[in-house]
Amino acid sequence: xxxxxxxxxxxxxxxxxxxxxxxxxxxxxxxxxxxxxxxxxxxxxxxxxxxxxxxxxxxxxxxxxxxxxxxxxxxxxxxxxxxxxxxxxxxxxxxxxxxxx
Amino acid sequence: xxxxxxxxxxxxxxxxxxxxxxxxxxxxxxxxxxxxxxxxxxxxxxxxxxxxxxxxxxxxxxxxxxxxxxxxxxxxxxxxxxxxxxxxxxxxxxxxxxxxx
Amino acid sequence: xxxxxxxxxxxxxxxxxxxxxxxxxxxxxxxxxxxxxxxxxxxxxxxxxxxxxxxxxxxxxxxxxxxxxxxxxxxxxxxxxxxxxxxxxxxxxxxxxxxxx
Amino acid sequence: xxxxxxxxxxxxxxxxxxxxxxxxxxxxxxxxxxxxxxxxxxxxxxxxxxxxxxxxxxxxxxxxxxxxxxxxxxxxxxxxxxxxxxxxxxxxxxxxxxxxxxxxxxxxxxxxxxxxxxxxxxxxxxxxxxxxxxxxxxxxxxxxxxxxxxxxxxxxxxxxxxxxxxxxxxxxxxxxxxxxxxxxxxxxxxxxxxxxxxxxxxxxxxxxxxxxxxxxxxxxxxxxxxxxxxxxxxxxxxxxxxxxxxxxxxxxxxxxxxxxxxxxxxxxxxxxxxxxxxxxxxxxxxxxxxxxxxxxxxxxxxxxxxxxxxxxxxxxxxxxx
Amino acid sequence: xxxxxxxxxxxxxxxxxxxxxxxxxxxxxxxxxxxxxxxxxxxxxxxxxxxxxxxxxxxxxxxxxxxxxxxxxxxxxxxxxxxxxxxxxxxxxxxxxxxxxxxxxxxxxxxxxxxxxxxxxxxxxxxxxxxxxxxxxxxxxxxxxxxxxxxxxxxxxxxxxxxxxxxxxxxxxxxxxxxxxxxxxxxxxxxxxxxxxxxxxxxxxxxxxxxxxxxxxxxxxxxxxxxxxxxxxxxxxxxxxxxxxxxxxxxxxxxxxxxxxxxxxxxxxxxxxxxxxxxxxxxxxxxxxxxxxxxxxxxxxxxxxxxxxxxxxxxxxxxxx
Amino acid sequence: xxxxxxxxxxxxxxxxxxxxxxxxxxxxxxxxxxxxxxxxxxxxxxxxxxxxxxxxxxxxxxxxxxxxxxxxxxxxxxxxxxxxxxxxxxxxxxxxxxxxxxxxxxxxxxxxxxxxxxxxxxxxxxxxxxxxxxxxxxxxxxxxxxxxxxxxxxxxxxxxxxxxxxxxxxxxxxxxxxxxxxxxxxxxxxxxxxxxxxxxxxxxxxxxxxxxxxxxxxxxxxxxxxxxxxxxxxxxxxxxxxxxxxxxxxxxxxxxxxxxxxxxxxxxxxxxxxxxxxxxxxxxxxxxxxxxxxxxxxxxxxxxxxxxxxxxxxxxxxxxx
Lengths: 101, 101, 101, 321, 321, 321
Ligand SMILES: Nc1ncnc2c1ncn2[C@@H]1O[C@H](COP(=O)(O)O)[C@@H](O)[C@H]1O
Ligand SMILES: Nc1ncnc2c1ncn2[C@@H]1O[C@H](COP(=O)(O)O)[C@@H](O)[C@H]1O
Ligand SMILES: Nc1ncnc2c1ncn2[C@@H]1O[C@H](COP(=O)(O)O)[C@@H](O)[C@H]1O
Ligand code: NA
Ligand code: NA
Ligand code: NA
Hints:
The complex is a heterohexamer, with 3 copies of chain A and 3 copies of chain D.
Chain A: E1 2-12, H1 16-25, E2 31-35, E3 38-41, E4 44-47, E5 57-64, H2 66-80, E6 86-94
Antiparallel strand pairs in A: 1-5, 1-6, 2-5, 3-4
Chain D: H1 3-7, H2 10-23, H3 32-57, H4 61-76, H5 78-87, H6 93-104, H7 108-120, H8 129-136, H9 139-147, H10 164-169, H11 172-192, H12 196-201, H13 203-224, H14 230-253, H15 258-269, H16 275-283, H17 289-320
The structure holds adenosine monophosphate (3 copies) and sodium ion (3 copies).
One sodium ion binds next to helix 6 of chain D.
Transmembrane segments (chains D, E, F): 6-26, 38-59, 65-85, 97-114, 126-148, 169-187, 202-220, 232-256, 262-284, 291-315
Organism (chains D, E, F): Sphingomonas changnyeongensis
Protein name (chains D, E, F): Sodium-dependent bicarbonate transport family permease
């Protein structure tokens, strides 16, 4: 088992394709998307709304090296406030380290 | 990046509104809800069942300070057994610490 | 609060019943299933596809002791590559330790 | 109507197909969202159909009688069930009360299937029975909670915010059923004409699709069902028979006619698996959903669908003759 | 048509039922996937119905006029709304522009309900209005983004990949509506006959089910709505009235006839809550969705459905006389 | 029937609309749950329609012949495909076997569209062909797994619990199709009358909605498709033509008549993308889903829908003359 970083980003659905590109540019090309149902933050409550997709959010999950994680977080940081993102990082152990960057 | 606590509670859907209120009372007002499909525990298997909603469960996720997390966990503890809850805590790092309590 | 291991496995839906049996055989009988929407890995992109269910994936989450986690991971390791699994382990704290193996 | 007549109806056949598929461990599954959508459609259609009939034929004194009978049954039926389960099935107070509430309340799909079979049989029930269905959903919950003495335990931290009565009377299925019934009465024949192809034309076909899923769900629950014992299974068959016969007898005594009396029996004999479990999970979290859903959904529902309904109709015909 | 006529139509009654259920905090809910499926169905059906009518009656010069009027309204209506919101509601530039784009664009469900009420009222609008509906969805977005001077801020890292025009014109609802309209025109009466039971027969009934959900969504948004103030609520009622009257007047001036003019007014007075929010979330992430969805979905939509539509029809009848 | 006739049918036009929307990178999407619900509906309706026809016209010796032909084709067609893919496309054993299984099996939606086009063309096929469709789904899987010598590798820890035959024959789509066929036969014309508005009236309209989604899915898979090469794409067009012609010829030789022979060709030429992928993912996890779904869903399915079906019908008319 080797240590890697687990980076999670909660993001509005319409912004997801752009996030995937940004991650790729930062060297994070493998990821998994998990659904979210709703929540509450500084800007009030939201619920998933498939009608227009405008208010739905998705959890982007990537396991990667510390270096790539740092590069990704750095590029994302200036966008966190303007785009209402939630960014989480933690440690995780994986088998087959090379598969995770 | 600053350290915060990641608290997760797996709870029956009908009990969710009450959990959100209890969390708020403990100082945890920001959260995200994630869907769950099924599982198995001490009380047997369950599957999501939207028919009555009676047997569906939801994952409540909150990132907060250690103090608020402790207060929340303390209030929840006596209910864990009677209400079949699963409660998990771990460390997580966030940017913009003040946004997370 | 006591320390336990959080083991997560991202697996193709058709393989899930077999994974649950394998976990049980390794002493991991309690788990929760979380949905996934899509992702990208070494073998390209996937999206959830309920049509045949062939390309959908599910996140299997189990909280267990380090010993049981190790036994589970050991049995799963030879299958990771051939079955396109993603396996993650991390630390987590729980109340009511005996409930988690 | 013999059981065989019932068993060759497509609605019942689709239920059996679903149950067989689940027993054979097929991976056949209806997405939850679709099943939920179908159940909303069915409640809306049932409400509209009933409301349209009342608008057409007008309210009658019999409607008031039937509603009073329904409310009475729903309030009182949980009592004998509770004491029976305490004494004979040795259930603890909370579980016995939770199960009793389910049997006092009613099943919308059993009602719909019973109405169809009665129509097929040339013995249609009165349209106002939709209103009876709606008013029977909730009183049993109140009796059940009183039996569990939910109040005694003190308000715990996860108790419902608006109070239990709120959860009980504003349960989604109750609101949709009653609301659609009122809309049907307000809009009347003329106003409903443009939407009839949906609420009437599709009703039986979509009921088939829904029953396919109910077959899958009921059989899977029976197979998962660690909470069920031979004894609880036996009660889950015995209780509906007794309650159903009682309902038919009451209807006949009130002079409701054989079709309507049979349907009152079907309601009395049916057990809830939509409205009541949701409230119980909230109000009596300690009660075991495996037990009450296992009994009502996995045993009583299939029993009623295949054998119970023809049996209540048979009784109604004998008593009415 | 009086407001009371509108208020006793099942479509409107189901909207009210949903809204009441949400206000009473019932747990009634339509699964998101079902609601989305219904909205896809409605757009497909609206497109096919319009296309079939144009195939049947042929294109007319009036169709060209009406489409030009629609495009013009959608481009220009955001301007006065923007300056009004800046000056009188004191919104910042970005939020004012985002809201203005919603009011220049249109609501598919308001259109569908309006068409039904007009038909019921014996004043059917021309089939080509579906094409007008489709072309009115997007110009307002362009005006709104220009007002926000989205370009000035420079391309941020999460800006849409294909450019904003791409997102605007290839929004799913625009594509489905226009595509179905073209398919309806291509297939014609004969080709459409086998699918008419779905796109025509089910339309009004499924619209009811969809409006039940819209009632739930609108009322819940109103209750969550921290972003709304008395002032923004007032504007969310004032703007549609003025825009709607303008649309009716323009239609009448162009000689489109009372039914078609009323529908142009309904389009002008309606505000988008499907296509525009999705683009705004992408293009102006700083704008507050609570504000623009609150105004368009939680205030303007219910207002139009209950009072606005009868009012625009009334104006059209007066002006047309 | 010319390809142009096919291409102006609404079902095909909706498929093209979906494909175009996906190629243009529109965000149009049908929720997965709705798509799955529609596919369940289509299988139920196809089964009932076929069963009703058999109940109406009775079983014939030709039905036996056609079923035997279908089973034979499904068992044997994977063999030449396998050797061709090994030799000419240089696929490894496992992938070649997995793809071969898909081409031996059948596509329910291609069948449904083909039946509609034949009916439109005045050349309806026999109702028992639904039974042929059902029996052709699984034999190819057995041949495919034998070719991959799945047994040799030893049972791995994630092998299916009930054994592969179980997964193969109790696949949800097989169960629903066969079950509905039997229910249709049991219930007969009379029993099915109340549900005909759903299984018959809505069939073509809902098929359109489903094909819109299939267009989106097929085109998106083609765009994602790193697994496809010019060579595999060519085979995904060549194989159905040869297999389809073979099916038509066999049907004609057996004296099934032109409509029924054309439909046997359509079945032979179609490739599975519902039942077989699910079993392959389980039985041959090493095989690449991008390859087999890419070939069957993203190339062969669109080809058959637009060009293949008219071509098989054309052959059937020539051979039958
Ligand atoms: N580094 C990673 N981070 C997040 N998800 C991953 C990662 N690697 C693989 N996955 C997920 O696991 C799936 C299978 O991975 P693979 O076998 O590499 O194609 C991918 O499609 C992703 O959903
Ligand atoms: N402390 C937190 N814990 C969990 N989820 C959060 C937290 N803060 C924000 N979120 C999620 O991120 C979304 C956007 O946050 P905000 O930008 O603060 O409105 C919220 O609606 C929540 O779903
Ligand atoms: N050790 C565990 N790991 C993962 N999920 C668990 C675990 N224990 C319980 N759960 C989840 O919590 C639910 C309720 O647990 P229980 O009260 O033990 O029946 C289970 O059905 C699982 O979904
Ligand atoms: Na009852
Ligand atoms: Na407008
Ligand atoms: Na084939």
